Amino acid sequence: MKILIVDDDKDIVQLLEIYVRNEGYEPITAYNGKEALTKLNTNSDIGLVILDIMMPEMDGMEVIKQVRKDSSIPILVVSAKTTDMDKIQGLITGADDYVTKPFNPLEVMARVKSLLRRSKGNLTNDEPDILNVGSLVINKDSHEVKTLKGDTIQLTALEFGILYLLASHPNRVFSADDIFERVWQQESVVSAKTVMVHVSHLRDKIEAATGGEKVIETVWGVGYKVESH
Q1: What is the residue extent of each domain of the chain?
Q2: Which CATH architecture has domain 130-226?
Q3: 2-119 architecture in CATH?
Q4: Which of the residues in the chain have pLDDT under 50?
């Protein structure tokens, strides 16, 4: 699998190249946003993007917006912008995860492997293959969500993971920490904010596709659930 590394700092690119290659992936590199989009358009087998935010010609936020128009490829932001609002903005724009600089390359690779597990549909074998929730049909094997009319709802791997987790345990309330540890398969001190942003995106997509159907409920002060019908 190819992993696209995008940063205008060549030392960071070279460092990440070493770690990506050591994990058995093929690194592809770009040094600004425009070059990143070109590489994505000409390499159909890129499976994940490691992306800086502050870059010349086109910044990382704009890259995410362009990619998310027609792709759910996992995107890991690695940025010197470190405030909670910076992280939330990155997630709202469409990133799957966010690591701040200076970073530990081992942590970056742990996040990469976690995102790739989700994108490959790493769900346990004892979970049902097909779930029906309201007007949604959720297919574990194909990682697809469709309406009863047959329209596909394009979700990222993490959005699908959240929906499948909640739908496969109807009426059970999952806290943000529970969801983060199960779906992201890692622990994080910012899990609540991260999950909140992804749930919000997921709700927007479901409601847009179903004409306003409310599938995921918030249990205030506790977490999220999907009710059985």
Answers
A1: 2-119, 130-226
A2: Orthogonal Bundle (1.10)
A3: 3-Layer(aba) Sandwich (3.40)
A4: 124-125
Residue 37: how many CA atoms within 13 Å on its side-chain side?
16
CB 40 within 8 A of CB 47: no
The pLDDT of residue 127 = 58
Whole-angstrom Cα distance, residue 79 to residue 71? Answer: 22
Q: 130-169 pLDDT, tens per residue?
A: 888 889 999 988 888 999 888 899 888 889 999 999 999 9
Scan for tokens 């790739």, then name that residue. 116
Report the length, in residues, of the chain: 229
Q: Hey, what are 199's tokens?
A: 């749930």
Two tokens, residue 210: 């179903």
Contact 183, 208 (CB under 8 A): no
Name the packing angle between helices 60-67 and 33-42 (round to 10°): 30
Sequence-distant (≥ 6) Cβ neighbours of residue 150 within 8 angstroms: none
**Per-residue pLDDT tens for 23-39?**
999 999 999 999 999 99
pTM to 2 decimal places: 0.71
Strand, coil or helix: 89: helix
C-beta separation of 59 from 14 below 8 A:
no
User: Cβ(162)–Cβ(183) under 8 Å?
Assistant: yes
